[in-house]
Amino acid sequence: MSFAVVFPGQGSQSLKMMDGFLECEVVQETFQIAKEVLQVDFLAMLQEATADNINSTINTQPLLLTAGVAIYNSWLHNGGIKPDIVAGHSLGEWSALVASGVVTFKDALKLVKIRASLMQQAVKPGEGSMVAVIGLDDEIIVNICNQVAQHTNGVVAAVNFNSPGQVVIAGGKDSVAVAMEQLKANGARKLVVLPMSVPSHCLLLKPASEKLHEALAKVTFNSPQIKVIHNFNVESYDNVDLIKEALVKQLYSPVLWTQTINKIVSNNIVKIVEFGQGKVLSGLNKRINETIVSGNLNAYDNIAMIKELVI
Length: 311
Hints:
Layout: E1 4-7, H1 25-38, H2 42-45, H3 57-77, E2 85-88, H4 92-99, H5 105-122, E3 128-134, H6 138-152, E4 156-163, E5 166-172, H7 173-185, E6 190-193, H8 206-216, E7 227-229, H9 240-250, H10 257-266, E8 271-275, H11 280-288, E9 293-297, H12 303-310
Parallel strand pairs: 1-2, 1-8, 2-7, 8-9
Antiparallel strand pairs: 3-5, 3-6, 4-5
Helix pairs in contact: 1-3, 1-5, 3-4, 3-5, 5-8, 6-7, 8-9
């Protein structure tokens, strides 16, 4: 039976999130590689008293890449079959690319660390904001953000189309605040300020994307062994230059998650397994398309259950 694997992105991290996999030697080995490459012990960081360090973008992104790859490695090591399609939400796309053989894990670690650093440098702490908008049509949100951006001469845009009725906006703090007032006045059921240190996927990240392009040019990419659906345009490529271009544009372009999931389903795939802690993507996916059969590989003990699901 065909199935897809999706990897969650920034915001899915939590303390002790890998505790359910610590008995797996392959997981330990994957985190050891990350420690050797980046000189950071992410497993130790996950056991700290507070989440301050894992919530810092410079740590969050390589941590989640490592977690996604570690879980995928444990799946294969224990007899799991390769999926037909992979995708990842924002940063999760990097885990998908490693799983597909496009880029080596070691190279991905270095690039994601650069990516995180460039993003943090592009917008100083406190100057940007991200807000989840619940219960309002996509078109209304897009129009309000466009109007506010013009009126304030600032940056605010819809950046994550997560599911029908759930969109995230991002931009400069002041412009986002004005947009929040307008969204509430136009019937938004709920507005949630997200604990993100960088306003991802908006034009404030354009300078970071240009520098990421330079870093990507120095690294060898391979044609995918598994089909990868890219966030920014819901396309799949065999050409490595187009894959790199997709990663560059992803930084300042919206994550089209609703379209991504519908694209997977259009390939006659309804079984979609989330490889990561929690069930954020699984919840979104079911709201996007009720025919989807969801699974969550978020603990080592779940591998046998997921094998049965994808048979």
